[in-house]
Amino acid sequence: MEPTPEREVLTWSTFGEAVRDLASRIARDGYRPEVLLGIARGGLPLAAGLAYALDVKETATINVEFYTGVDSRLPEPVVLPPSVDLSELAGRDVLVVDDVADTGRTLGVVVRMCAEAGVRVRSAVVYRKPTTTLAPEYAWRETDRWIEFPWSAQGPVPELGGGAASA
Q1: Total of domains in the chain
Q2: How far apart are CA 103 and CA 67, in angstroms?
Q3: Those residues with Cβ within 8 angstroms of residue 152's Cβ, 6 or more apart along the chain or in another chain
Q4: Would you state the pLDDT for residue 165?
């Protein structure tokens, strides 16, 4: 699928390049996270890729719901169970990973929770938008367009009785 002026289309192949490029930037910066914390669902592919590229064995996930569709969100990000016990990460270098810093509110909730638990936290995303209120330390690219990610572009399989794609 070709990019349109309204959308940024990320393919699996380009995503692989993004992971390597982002990992190289992080490594060149001298940052060596001990744990990667992926924000489910969109941040999980990047978290997995960076875990391998940065040779980080310890990973965790945190479930946060904010987007309910294209440009449709809940009033506030909501942390859903199950969740990681952040007190176990106190005093450690943790890289929080998500797909996009759009408003920055999802990333902000997780970064704030980590900091309050005594975690030394930085963040990384595939895309940063100019509208974000929390600029991650690491971003592969910046865009102001809606992003089509390869893991969510097609939506659920039709066998489920078909809902629309959700971010």
Answers
A1: 1
A2: 11
A3: 41, 42, 165, 166, 167
A4: 47
Give the span between the Cα atoms of 94 and 66, in whole angstroms: 22
**Cα–Cα distances in angstroms (integers) from residue 10 to residues 58, 60, 108, in the given order:** 27, 24, 24
Residue 65: CB atoms within 10 Å: 15
**Cβ atoms within 10 A of the Cβ of 63, count?**
15
pLDDT at residue 166 in the model: 45
In a domain, 43, yes or no: yes
**Which are the contacts of 36, defined by CB distance < 8 A and separation ≥ 6?**
47, 50, 51, 54, 56, 58, 59, 60, 94, 95, 97
Query: What's the whole-model pTM score?
Result: 0.87
pLDDT for res 84: 92
Residues of the chain with pLDDT under 70: 1-5, 66-74, 162-167
In a domain, 164, yes or no: no
Domain around 33 = 7-63+73-150
